[in-house]
Amino acid sequence: DGETVVVNNDEEMERVYKACKEEWGDDDKEEWGDKKCFEFVYPLTYILPDGTTATGNNREELRSAVKDWYTAHPDSKEEPILQYPVSVVFEDGETVVVNNDEEMERVYKRCE
Fold it and tell me: What is the reported pTM?
């Protein structure tokens, strides 16, 4: 609605995200403002910078697990890596197994 909000910390940012989800819904096809034409099939696992993994049976569980790791490792600047293979379901119902970053890039390009 054009409102500008100053966010001072992670807790406030979580409240902003929660308010947006309540207003717009928690559509798994919306990820940080990027419209996708597919959904991931859960559970998904990320490989964390220290080699451990974070797994979630849904988007919120996965976000929470990754956030918890970064809270415990505040000096880490590396991004987590999606553990392949993963399955995605397109809007038309087609399910595809994605085995690496190159294949994932093709999935995103299919949405363009």
Answer: 0.66
Amino acid at 59: R
pLDDT at 69: 95
List, in sequence order, the alpha helices (H) in 25-100: 59-72
In the sheet with 53-56, reading across from the earlier edge strand, the strands are: 53-56, 44-47, 81-82
Return all residues near 110 (Cβ < 8 A) that are at least 6 apart: 37, 38, 90
* Cα 2 to Cα 5, 15, 20, 102, distances in angstroms: 10, 17, 13, 37
- For 26-46, what is each residue's pLDDT tens digit? 444 444 335 578 999 999 999
Q: Which two tokens stand for residue 85?
A: 């293979």
- Residue with token string 């309540």: 22
